[in-house]
């Protein structure tokens, strides 16, 4: 399939042979292994290459004829020539002449040579990935753009009809821009810089396993934010931990490095200061029991995980959170994060002083339950609550635990008083007001304090300072349980957990 011909009056000049060779090199510079990398498009009209990207013109002349089917050019040499790590397929700009150590020390971020002439940009999503619901994709795209708008005067508004400045599409193989995707693995996405013939286009490979907030597949938030950096005019940077680094490595939470921030502010400036800002949400009334995370002698007041019976637990944004009293413990990849335990109000302003149960629904909303009420948060922003749980079809008694369950994590169960209900968060109703007995969960005690599911599909049920691991295939608790929470999740010694 070839790219559609341009309309009359917009015919493109023919590319010289060197430019055609560069295009071939760009299409074949993916590592042989199933590597993951971003791939923003570098194609420009040939007469602008020398003006806006002299290093690219030099690369065209240097490519020669040795283009292997996969991997980098055959002429590559040096210590790293035998290993090609996963990375974006666009070649990086070489260092300026005379730069010490092969690096440009005057300006580490790199610009594409173009920028938008306005700051209020619109965007539109044409097609969506099959693994994720549309509402969650929209929210993730909005969050990825917000990374850039938070540090600049830029604003982004979604439109669903008509023209848009940024056009986002999930597509496959040949899709009309002469930069085909390659199926699962390999090239993840590419984007077009400002002032090019397809400025604003962002393409994602439909065949990737797109996920949000975890490393079970390819994290859409991180890839989208990286590609939007290209759409706004940023090239790759040599700073390894920057968002605009060409290498795809799952990092959470997503944030800009100082290098990313300096680059985008060089193009668009800093956020404008509103002399009379209007609150984006109603101010909350002061609450007597509202806590902040700035208290004196906090270490003396923090509970010890080795001696704590947790009241709630949930996987939120791919990380595991344990709750007890006002505090929360945050585990990423099985490790307790620095600065925890911390007050839960540090993340969720207005959260109740203690939490009975919590879960993250398929749309990314976080639900908290206490006594006979519930709250809903979008990230760290409260969107509703407190609301009586009887409106959900539940009895007025306290919820003990909530579990997001199943391979697609689309089944939600709420536990209370030795019974459980299946809950539909979209309808905000239980499927049946009559509960089922806990005996369905073979081996799980009838009264539990918390529950969560891990990335492999196993469910964990907590009571006191013990937990039971539930096998989704055999539909029963595994042999050798219960075990101690403190020992397996917080690396406590058995002796420190001897009192129950």
Automatic annotation (TrEMBL):
The answer to whether UniProt assigns keyword Repeat to this entry is: yes
Q: Which GO terms describe its biological process?
A: basement membrane organization; collagen catabolic process; collagen fibril organization; negative regulation of fat cell differentiation; proteolysis
Q: Where are the Hemopexin repeats?
A: 303-351, 352-390, 396-444, 445-492
Q: What residues bind Ca(2+) 1, as annotated?
A: 208
| Origin: domain of life | Eukaryota
- Entry's InterPro entries? Hemopexin-like_dom, Hemopexin-like_dom_sf, Hemopexin-like_repeat, Hemopexin_CS, M10A_MMP, MetalloPept_cat_dom_sf, Pept_M10_metallopeptidase, Pept_M10A
- Family to which the UniProt record says this protein belongs: Belongs to the peptidase M10A family.
Natural source organism: Serinus canaria (Island canary)
| Active site residues according to the UniProt entry | 227
What this protein is called in its record is: Stromelysin-3
Q: Which GO terms describe its cellular component?
A: extracellular matrix; extracellular space
User: Which Pfam families does the entry mention?
Assistant: Hemopexin, Peptidase_M10
Gene Ontology molecular functions:
metalloendopeptidase activity; zinc ion binding
- Gene, per the UniProt record: MMP11
Per the entry, the cofactor note is:
Can bind about 5 Ca(2+) ions per subunit. Binds 2 Zn(2+) ions per subunit.
Alphabetically sorted, this entry's keywords are: Calcium, Cleavage on pair of basic residues, Collagen degradation, Disulfide bond, Extracellular matrix, Hydrolase, Metal-binding, Metalloprotease, Protease, Repeat, Secreted, Signal, Zinc, Zymogen
Task: Name the positions where Ca(2+) 2 binds.
Answer: 165, 201
């Amino acid at each position: 399939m070839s790219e559609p011909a341009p309309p009359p009056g917009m015919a493109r000049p023919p590319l010289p042979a060197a430019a055609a060779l560069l295009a071939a090199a760009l299409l074949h510079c993916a590592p042989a292994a199933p590597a993951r990398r971003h791939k923003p498009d570098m194609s420009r009209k040939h007469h602008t290459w020398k003006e806006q990207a002299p290093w690219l013109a030099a690369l065209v002349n240097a490519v020669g004829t040795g283009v292997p089917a996969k991997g980098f050019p055959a002429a590559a040499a040096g210590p790293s020539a035998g290993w090609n790590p996963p990375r974006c397929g666009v070649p990086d700009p070489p260092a300026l002449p005379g730069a010490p150590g092969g690096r440009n020390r005057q300006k580490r971020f790199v610009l594409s040579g173009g920028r938008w002439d306005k700051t209020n940009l619109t965007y539109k999503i044409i097609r969506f990935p099959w693994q994720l619901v549309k509402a969650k994709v929209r929210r993730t795209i909005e969050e990825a753009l917000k990374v850039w708008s938070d540090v600049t005067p830029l604003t982004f508004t979604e439109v669903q009809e008509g023209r848009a400045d940024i056009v986002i599409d999930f597509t496959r193989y040949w899709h009309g821009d002469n930069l085909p995707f390659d199926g699962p693995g390999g090239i993840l996405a590419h984007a077009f810089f400002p002032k090019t013939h397809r400025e604003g286009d962002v393409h994602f490979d439909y065949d990737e396993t797109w996920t949000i907030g975890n490393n079970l597949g390819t994290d859409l938030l991180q890839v989208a934010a990286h590609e939007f950096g290209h759409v706004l005019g940023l090239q790759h940077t040599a700073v390894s931990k920057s968002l605009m680094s060409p290498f795809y490595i799952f990092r959470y939470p997503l944030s800009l490095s100082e290098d990313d921030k300096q680059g985008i502010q060089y193009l668009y400036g800093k956020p404008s200061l509103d002399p009379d800002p209007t609150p984006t949400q109603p101010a909350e009334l002061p609450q007597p029991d509202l806590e902040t995370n700035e208290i004196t002698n906090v270490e003396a007041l923090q509970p010890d995980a080795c001696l704590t019976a947790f009241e709630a637990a949930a996987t939120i944004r791919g990380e595991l959170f344990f709750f007890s009293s006002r505090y929360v413990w945050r585990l990423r990849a099985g490790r307790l994060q620095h600065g925890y335990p911390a007050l839960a109000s540090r993340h969720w302003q207005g959260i109740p002083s203690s939490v009975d149960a919590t879960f993250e629904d398929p749309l990314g909303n976080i639900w908290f339950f206490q006594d006979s009420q519930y709250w809903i948060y979008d990230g760290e922003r409260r969107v509703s609550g407190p609301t009586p749980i009887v409106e959900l079809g539940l009895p007025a008694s306290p919820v003990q635990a909530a579990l997001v369950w199943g391979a697609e994590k689309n089944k939600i169960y709420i536990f209370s008083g030795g019974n459980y209900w299946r809950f539909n968060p979209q309808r905000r109703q239980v499927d049946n007001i009559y509960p089922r007995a806990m005996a369905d969960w073979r081996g799980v005690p009838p009264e539990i304090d918390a529950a969560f599911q891990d990335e492999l599909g196993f469910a964990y049920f907590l009571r006191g300072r013990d937990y039971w691991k539930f096998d989704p295939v055999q539909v029963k608790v595994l042999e050798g349980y219960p075990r101690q929470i403190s020992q397996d999740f917080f690396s406590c010694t058995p002796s420190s957990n001897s009192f129950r």
